[in-house]
Amino acid sequence: MKAAICILLFVLVGYIQARITYDDVLKAEFELFKVEHKKSYDSKYEEQLRLQIFKDNKKLIDRHNKRYVAGEKTYKMGVNKFTDLTQEEFKISLLSSLNSNHSLEGIDYIYNPSAKDSVPKSIDWRTSGAVNPIKDQGQHCGSCWAFSAVGSLESQYFINKGRKVSLSEQNLVDCSRGFPYNNNGCSNGSTNGAFNYIWNNGIDTESSYPYEARDDDCRYNRNYIGAKISGTVHVESGNEDALASAVANKGPISVAVDVIYKFRHYSGGVFNEPSCSQHLNHGVVIIGYGTDSVGGDYWLVRNSWGKNWGEKGYIRMARNRNNQCGIANIPIFPLV
């Protein structure tokens, strides 16, 4: 009798498993996704639309990860808070169009590596306490340029003045719009435009001028300035050796990269994508570099999409791969 029951249970389990499809699995994952990322939608139609977009993105992620497991890719993908967005929605919501020429206007100095400068095999400025915790620009504000500028400045202040400061991206979003800085708040901007604003005005602290992830009226108050700069330095465009020297000897550097559709799904490893272009649309900060046994040389990059994205808010991007994703096109750091 017991044997018969066991056989029956085995048959039933097999029948149930056979009835569960890949589509069923994706629907279940979507329900978990909504809970984890606190997602809710305005209508049943909207929910069905987001479900379909989630499925499409998840299928892409699963196909990629099969190649990763097979050793054909050096990085893996995963579900994150962007998985229910189309690529076009993602671009409109979070990315900026960064013009390289405009981004270099008014540069004060060019960084020239010295033969005396040591360039170690690897460096990570987090280990010395020079990098603040990961921040989040939000899902509806293309303020990456402000986070890139602030991220570099916060680190430069710690390295050169021994002071830990958290500075206000919202100050830049609200107050550096239009002439002469030519930024456009949540729509787009340039890191150098941000630094030019700071050179003229200073920048308020994060606590006095908290982030809102939207355009607002300028409320800058010189009584709450957290940092000032005396100029900006540009590293030779396209020169990854010079960029490595600058990162090692000067500290974290503001850069811009091309974010292709696979970038937003990144969850770990070395992001090596030859399909990347030189069209820069996202500001980030290089805080180090190294070499991975699987993925090879990489840049250690601080992003502004929260600590639950990528490798706890960071991405390792391919280094010494012909300036992949344009990462060495407009490296800038402030003088403090």
UniProtKB/TrEMBL annotation:
Catalyses:
Specificity close to that of papain. As compared to cathepsin B, cathepsin L exhibits higher activity toward protein substrates, but has little activity on Z-Arg-Arg-NHMec, and no peptidyl-dipeptidase activity
Q: Peptidase C1A papain C-terminal domain: from which residue to which, for each copy?
A: 119-335
What EC number(s) would the UniProt record show?
3.4.22.15
Q: Where is the Cathepsin propeptide inhibitor domain?
A: 30-90
Looking at its record, which EC class is this enzyme?
Answer: hydrolase
Cited SMART domains: Inhibitor_I29, Pept_C1
Alphabetic keyword roster? Disulfide bond, Hydrolase, Protease, Signal, Thiol protease
Q: Which GO terms describe its biological process?
A: proteolysis
Kindly indicate whether the keyword 4Fe-4S belongs to this entry.
no
Q: Where is the signal peptide?
A: 1-18
Subunit record text: Dimer of a heavy and a light chain linked by disulfide bonds.
Provide the family line.
Answer: Belongs to the peptidase C1 family.
Q: What is this protein called?
A: cathepsin L
* Species of the source: Drosophila albomicans (Fruit fly)
Q: What is the lineage of its organism?
A: Eukaryota, Metazoa, Ecdysozoa, Arthropoda, Hexapoda
The gene behind this protein is LOC117566503
